[in-house]
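anyone seen this seq b4? input:
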Amino acid sequence: MQLYLLMTGLYENIYNLQRDKRCSFLMRAEKVNIGPLSLIGMKNQYMQTFRCSEKEAFKMAAFTKGYSYAFQALGYIMWDKDCSLEEAIPAFDEKMAGYCYEKVWDDLSEKEKEIISLLAENGEMKTRDIIAKIGSTDRTFSVQRDRLEKKVL
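predicted toks r here
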């Protein structure tokens, strides 16, 4: 008999759980990392649920950027309030801030927050420019970048 365990959550929480000696089976278990949801699948689901045009459904799907919680939250808000995407955005932002953004931000190190803030202010930047602005080294920055990449998956 096979047993499957589906886990979702922040990278560091899952990583820490896998490394816990009391959960050694998780270290040995085969893992499948799942990326963002399919925009086409989300579009189709939105079209079916809201009886909207393909263009509007795709706009809604693209707005979520493939994040499953965002897909669910947006759909729930639009269904509950019987409103358009534009009308749902304030409630969506509030829900995401309270349940996602603040938690992710609180779990970042000060250096990671500095990197994120720098990118938010300047948009896309070259690695060497980020390193120079935060006063880091290539080696230290590569570790920080790796951690940030894992945290957003």
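Residues 85-106 form the longest helix (22 residues). The CA atoms of residues 105 and 113 lie 7 Å apart. kinda curious what u guys think
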